[in-house]
Specification:
The chain is an alpha/beta fold. It has a single domain, classed as Rossmann fold (3-Layer(aba) Sandwich), CATH 3.40.50.1820. Helices cover about 40% and strands about 25% of the residues. The chain is built from eight helices and eight strands; from the N terminus they run αβββαβααβαββαβαα. The chain has helices spanning about 1-25, 70-80, 100-110, 115-130, 145-155, 200-215, 235-240, 250-265, and strands at about 30-35, 40-50, 55-60, 85-90, 135-145, 165-170, 185-190, 215-220. Helix 5 links the parallel strand 5 (about 135-145) and strand 6 (about 165-170).
């Protein structure tokens, strides 16, 4: 009888909680944002939960080398569901989404040809995020995947006013090395230990660079994980183009959990 009573009470409480949750159910809204840089149009995407009152931290999401696509927008929406406002920015220009690695490589090289160009494209979207009605501009961060991982690391190196940046299977080669007193954002790097695009020498060089600059950093490597391990579409693309790409659910889940914990710390 005691067990039945406890179970009934628990079920009633759970039902009430579910009803209450339903009345304040998160509703993620998306906004397409278009703007020009040097006469060229770019299209980004802002996601936020309109059931949350007041301002909240903002997060920039930088896409893989394939370009601004549904995957980048999905990550922005995942962040919105967690209570952030996120902008999935466009680093290439409206409509520039690669279907083949050769095109992706060409788009990427053009975008990172120099620090000024990379920074201008990042800042154009970043400024729109900070001006959004839902965002506390004093609490911002950036995350990036593959090519985007390089972008957010370089923004930290160049001294952008971010609380932190997170690179997922990103290129670690610096456009300019981090400098003490300039590079102030905390840095988290999640890498596949078997990623053939990121040699272990690059990991060692990043550790030394961050330490010299006095940056708060952490590098997590996932045994068995290869490049693009966070993207569920990576395995199919890897097979299609005979490239060492593959999704790894365990590494994806753990890196996301660690990222949310990281945000809890830097935005407290």
């Amino acid at each position: 009888m005691i067990r039945l009573k406890l179970t009934t009470t628990f079920c009633a409480a759970a039902l009430l909680a579910a009803v209450a949750a339903g009345t304040a159910e998160a509703k993620v809204k998306g906004e397409v944002v278009k703007y020009t840089i040097g006469g060229e149009e770019f299209t980004s995407y802002i996601a936020y939960d309109d059931a949350i009152a007041g301002k909240r931290p903002g997060v920039v999401v930088v896409h893989e080398w394939w370009g601004h696509d549904a995957y980048a927008r999905k990550r922005a929406e995942m962040l919105a569901a967690r209570g952030y406002t996120a902008i999935a920015l466009d680093m290439y220009g409206t409509g520039k989404q690669a279907e083949h690695p050769k095109d992706a490589g060409a788009f990427m090289k053009e975008a990172i040809a120099n620090a000024d160009r990379m920074r201008a494209r990042f800042r154009a979207a970043y400024s729109r995020l900070k001006r959004h009605d839902t965002v506390d501009p004093a609490k911002t961060a950036a995350i990036g995947y593959c090519f985007g991982g390089k972008v957010v690391l370089d923004m930290a190196r160049l001294g952008e006013d971010l609380k932190g940046v997170v690179s997922f299977h990103g290129n670690l080669t610096p456009i300019e090395k981090a400098q003490r007193g300039v590079s102030k954002a905390a840095v988290r790097v999640f890498n596949g230990a078997d990623d053939k695009f990121v040699p272990q020498a690059s990991i060692s060089a990043l550790r030394a660079e961050m330490a010299r600059a006095g940056v708060d950093y952490e590098i997590v490597q996932y045994p068995g994980a290869v490049h693009s391990f966070t993207n569920p579409g990576a395995t199919e693309r890897g097979k299609k183009f005979n490239m060492p790409l593959a999704y790894n659910a365990q590494a994806d889940g753990d890196s996301w959990r660690r990222t949310m914990n990281f945000f809890d710390v830097i935005f407290k």
